[in-house]
Amino acid sequence: MASINWSGIFPAMLTPFDEDGKIDFAMLSINIEAQIAAGIHGIILAGSLGEASVLTPGEKFEILTHALQVVAGRIPVLLNITENTTADAIAFAQQAEKLGADGLMVLPPMRYRGDDREVVSWFRSIAQHTKLPILVYNNPVDYATYISLDMFDELLQEPNIQAVKESTRDLTNITRLKNRFGDRLKILAGVDTIFLESLALGADGVVGGLVDAFPRETFAIFDYVKKGEVDKAVAIYRWFMPLLELDIHPKLVQYIKLAAAKEGLSTPFTRAPRLPLVGEEEVRVNKVIDDALALRPQL
């Protein structure tokens, strides 16, 4: 079984498009290289921020293949699973493994809200049909499915279920998970606006959004926390917070793409039904980004 060191920063990568809605692979390469240069520890492709809902399975595999060529073994490359049926999810996982993915992030079933038994069966069935390490995405706020500690008890019977993207918004859950499972379940903080607090409480790493636009600042906060220099981390974090709040909005894709475009790390284009920002919202979001850039800390 492949292994991933679930420590560090794992950007939920944007999927850049050109003006015609085609995937801009050259821009994806630029962002991947910027992430690696900043010191990040792995990338996650075709998640919510990567606009999984408007990508075909074929496009997701094209993105994976391209990213693997760019990364060339330097960091782990994970692909996100957001299928509707267990059979499709298994087939997707097996194709990702065949193409060379290093791991998978798996969401609960998307269109059907299963009960606890059904959700556990979903994750375990996928895990039993691939050797790839699995990161379970626990986000009851956005996806209406809460994966409880008792459910993780069952999930961890599968050795390749190794980590959780902890997006419950409840910081006490990190301590509950650590008390119950110790190092058997690695914890990646999944909400930008509490990622420093999550690290301070023992989260092993971060699945980030604004890291797409600001990899160096994200890495610096992580690095300072791990070195015990929390004051230095907090100083950058306070500057970062207005930007991080762009991650907890339904239009996070448009917002973060706009920020990344200003940094030369993405295009601003999304696929419909997402539309470009207009009016007061466009002015307000641009001001948040521009104000932050004007006061950017020296690293």
UniProtKB/TrEMBL annotation:
Molecular function (Gene Ontology), one example: N-acetylneuraminate lyase activity
GO CC field: cytosol
GO annotation terms (biological process): N-acetylneuraminate catabolic process
Keyword Lyase: yes
Annotated keywords: Lyase
Matches recorded under CDD domains: DHDPS-like (cd00408)
Cross-referenced InterPro entries: Aldolase_TIM, DapA-like
Family in the record: Belongs to the DapA family.
Protein name per the record: 4-hydroxy-tetrahydrodipicolinate synthase
Taxon lineage: Bacteria, Pseudomonadati, Bacteroidota, Sphingobacteriia, Sphingobacteriales
